[in-house]
Specification:
By secondary structure, the chain is α/β, with parallel strands linked by helices. The chain is built from 9 helices and 14 strands.
Length: about 270
């Protein structure tokens, strides 16, 4: 017999919110309210930093926890850090030094800002192309001393060959392709499932009491581990094969239909 669901975790982009838009469908908001009324813990798990999470998620869903920067940093309802899994400081220093030596731009994801250590003027408009209103989040640290604290992620934009030359030099981190000539840096030991696991331990909840929703490659571990998991129909093939149930896309009311399928809402 399946255990009762105590926690639901949603990816944001392509799952809660249609990619390229900023709002959660009304039927999804109503469904999540039903889950909350049953005392189910609501979480979101995203690659985004907390300050880039859409207002609609924060204001209407009001999740109990946010797994941010792909699991490197978990924050609570008040956006206070409860779990930190930063990159290594040695790798961070190496990335900045190489960015300055070879001439590509680099921004580090800190808890409250994106710290740009090289080529701020180049980095800013490209990194914020979809949301120029967030300029205040970027800190220009060009020419400044190397940081004393490790960040939760790193983002580089510039000559691909130069950026890729970092890959064999990094000890604990891996480079992943983001878009265009932009790359992201993660720790393989981090991830959405790792951030979720921290919260599960705090509440003494097992993976068999969890349902996860996702659509992308970085959702695969949390889809595999949860007792029940849902992939959006238009998601990455790996997400579809990892999930226990495949639903429709955001436009096809995927979340609501899946919650009904698992008899979590009326």
């Amino acid at each position: 017999k399946m255990k009762e669901v105590k926690l639901v975790a949603f990816d944001i982009d392509g799952t809660l919110i249609k990619r390229g838009t900023k709002h959660i469908p009304e039927d999804v908001k109503a469904a999540i309210q039903q889950l909350k009324n049953k005392g189910i813990i609501i979480m979101v798990a995203t690659g985004r930093s907390s300050f880039f999470i859409q207002d609609d998620v924060i204001q209407t869903i009001q999740p109990d926890f946010y797994v941010t920067v792909n699991g490197h940093l978990v924050v609570d309802k008040q956006m206070n850090a409860v779990y930190k899994n930063p990159l290594s400081l040695a790798d961070t220093h190496l990335m900045i030094s190489e960015a300055r030596r070879l001439g590509f731009s680099i921004g580090l994801k800190s808890e409250h800002s994106i710290d740009v250590y090289h080529q701020y003027e180049y980095f800013a408009p490209r990194y914020l192309s979809s949301d120029p209103s967030k300029l205040h989040i970027l800190k220009n640290l060009e020419g400044q001393d190397l940081p004393k604290e490790a960040p939760y992620g790193s983002f580089m934009i510039g000559n691909e060959e130069d950026i890729l030359s970092l890959a064999p030099k990094l000890n604990d981190c891996i480079l992943t392709y983001a878009y265009g000539n932009a790359y992201e840096v993660y720790k393989p030991q981090a991830g959405k499932a790792d951030g979720l696991e921290y919260v599960l331990k705090q509440y003494n909840i097992g993976w068999d009491e969890v349902i996860t929703f996702g659509d992308a490659h970085n959702d695969v571990p949390m889809l595999e581990k949860a007792g029940r998991s849902v992939a959006m129909g238009d998601g990455h093939p790996d997400a579809l094969s990892a999930a226990s149930y495949v639903t429709g896309s955001v436009d096809e009311h995927g979340i609501v239909n899946a919650l009904k399928h698992f008899q979590l809402i009326d």
